[in-house]
Amino acid sequence: MTERVAFRQGFPVSGGDYLHAGQASVKIKNLLRELGLKDDVVLRAAIVSYEAEMNIIMYASQGRLELAVAPHRILIVGEDSGPGIEDIELAMREGYSTATPEMRELGFGAGMGLPNIKKNADDFRIQSEPGRGTRLEMTIRTNGRDA
Amino acid sequence: MKPEIYHSVRVNGQRCIGCVHCLTNCPTKAIRVRGGRARIINELCIDCGECIRFCPQDAIDSRTTSFLDLNVFQYKVAIPATVLYGQFDNATLPSEILFALRRIGFDYAYELSTINELNNAAIEKYLNNHPKPRPFISSTCPVVVRLIQRVFPSLCELIVPIEPPREIAAKILRANLPRVLKISPEGIGIIHITPCPAKMVSINRPASMEKSYLNGAISIRDIYKPILQALRQSREEAIMSHLFPETIFSGIGMGTALSGGETRGLKYHRTVSVSGVRDTIRVLNQVELGLLKDVDLLECTVCPDGCVGGPLAVENRFLTKSRILRLVNSMGERAVVDNSDMNLLYSEDFLSFRHPVAPVGAPLLDADPGHAIQKAERRNELFKRLPRKDCGACGAPDCWSLADDVVRGTAVLSDCPFVKKEGE
User: Fold this and answer.
1) CATH topology for B1-63?
2) For B50-64, how does the pLDDT look when each residue is reduced to its tens digit (9 = 90+)?
3) Is A112 near chain B, with CB under 8 Å?
4) Touching check for A47 and chain B: CB below 8 Å?
5) In this model, does residue A1 exceed pLDDT 50?
6) In CATH, which superfamily holds the domain spanning B371-424?
7) Among B157, B189, B239, B255, which one is most buried in terms of CB atoms within 10 A?
8) Contact B195, B83 (CB under 8 A)
9) 3 state SS for chain B
10) Does the pLDDT at position B3 exceed 70?
């Protein structure tokens, strides 16, 4: 993000905390709405936040979402100290999942999370080191898709 | 009946003592205590009536139509919500209640369970004709519609554009009564009897139509005693009305007042029923995050257990529920709506909205995006200085709302009795 960041807020996310799943994303969604951003932008930001949040809850022990809003773009970073992703290219494929039967029982782990982020973000970067953790960087332009 | 009414919920300044019960229980944080009295913020209130429920002073009530207002009509029709059938003891049957309504001054009482069935069949047809998007959301609870318009604007397009039963009933009456009775349309007053404060608003300021087909709404609270008296005074006549019923009831439409009642008739669709305002907000948040796409119809009612939990009912919702369930069980799956009639009305667009439900933007932090960002930052800083006791002493429902009010210019930080004064 090259612009001067005007607003920044972090949201801690605890691994395994299905009870509060989605809370951070809902806060992000409500905040972006109050800032007067277009609904399509707000929803795409909320969806990518939610996917990142769920990844932390499902796979990591501890992590956080970091929201940064500048006049022309929103940056959402999901960072965790989890197991990391062995093969990023494979993980990006629709339907590929390393979810445990337990996660699937809860209705998660369909292998659509990362592809869904890619679909909704204007820019998506992923860094991961097996055994250390994962960092997802998602950018959404505030003037919408067409700009 | 006056167009300037935006809200039905209002505070009685004589009774309000400025405590924090309504403040902290308002799901949209639409109340502030100022000058020792609760004030409702018009832009935020959705008329759910939670404040009515929680006020220990009985200082909040709902503006509904008074009996005197009815005198302007030559012919008066009551359309009671089926919740009314559960307000009296088990021995009092729906036909007797309809009789009692005529006894207390209505020329006619129109039975709603059949229209509930008709509405149900129309929703089923709509779902069949529209495989996408999902999930659709039922429009029956007017508070849910208002909540979606203000807090979940992206979900407006998911609201099923089929009129709620009360409006369909009134529309049918409007279309037929003037002709049958040879009375001018203005001479006919159609009044809904309801446990719901939001119905008054949906009649005066409908979200989905330019004008409601109803003329007003009387709360069950206000009409309970006259009905009870009429039932007592004319016990025998009431029993006759039960033995020789003039009205047919629908088994399918009888349970609509209970959460899940609306989806009960939909045998071939995947449905979810939610009740209670907080749970409704939780589920709508999930829908907005793109979940629940495998659900065909989402029925949300903001009152606990459905309309039986309406704040303007008299009987507690558990007894009401038990009595209505008894009616549902005794009537079973009895259907009274002819499918070809429904198809005809559906194809003529008689059952649907003319105007789509449009979002009503919540107040922004600032019209200028740059300033809005600055205010959001300042709000976070202010919030850090507050004690997070959420005590309500400042007049805002919680510390976050005080910080929000300060950046919006409607409060000052020193309203908080715990915060240290600048420079101290």
Assistant:
1) Alpha-Beta Plaits (3.30.70)
2) 999 999 999 999 888
3) no
4) yes
5) no
6) Electron transport complex subunit B, putative Fe-S cluster (1.10.15.40)
7) B255
8) yes
9) CCCCCCCCEEECCCCCCCCCHHHHHCCCCCEEEECCEEEECCCCCCCCCHHHHHCCCCCEEECCCCHHHHHHCCEEEEEECHHHHHCCCCCCCHHHHHHHHHHCCCCEECCCHHHHHHHHHHHHHHHHHCCCCCCEECCCCHHHHHHHHHHCHHHHHHECCECCHHHHHHHHHHHHHHHHHCCCHHHEEEEEEECCCHHHHHHHCCCCCCCCCCCEEEEHHHHHHHHHHHHHHCHHHHHHHHHCCCCCCCHHHHHHHCCCCCCCCCCCCCEEEEECHHHHHHHHHHHHCCCCCCCCEEEEECCCCCHHHCCCCCCCHHHHHHHHHHHHHHHCCCCCCCHHHHHHHHHCCCCECCCCCCCCCCCCCCCCHHHHHHHHHHHHHHHHHCCCCCCCCCCCCCHHHHHHHHHHCCCCHHHCCCCCCCCC
10) no
Q: How many angstroms separate the CA atoms of B386 and B412, rounded?
A: 12
Quick one: pLDDT at residue A123?
96
Domains of chain A by range and CATH? 7-141 (3.30.565.10)
Interface of B with A (CB under 8 A): 153-154, 285-286, 288-290, 359, 362, 364-367, 369-370, 372-374, 376-377, 380
Can you give the residue ranges of every domain in chain B?
A: 1-63, 67-347, 371-424
Closest residue of chain A to B285, computed from CA coordinates: A26
CB pairs A-B closer than 8 Å: 59
Residue pLDDT, tens place only, A96-107: 888 888 888 777
Question: In A, which residues are within 8 Å of B150 by CB distance?
Answer: none
> Chain B contacts of A50, Cβ < 8 Å?
289-290
Backbone angles phi, psi at A18, to 5 degrees: -65, -25
Q: Do B373 and A69 touch (CB under 8 A)?
A: yes
Q: What ipTM did this prediction achieve?
A: 0.87
Across the interface, whether the CB atoms of A22 and B286 are under 8 A apart is answered: yes
A46:B374 CB<8 A: no
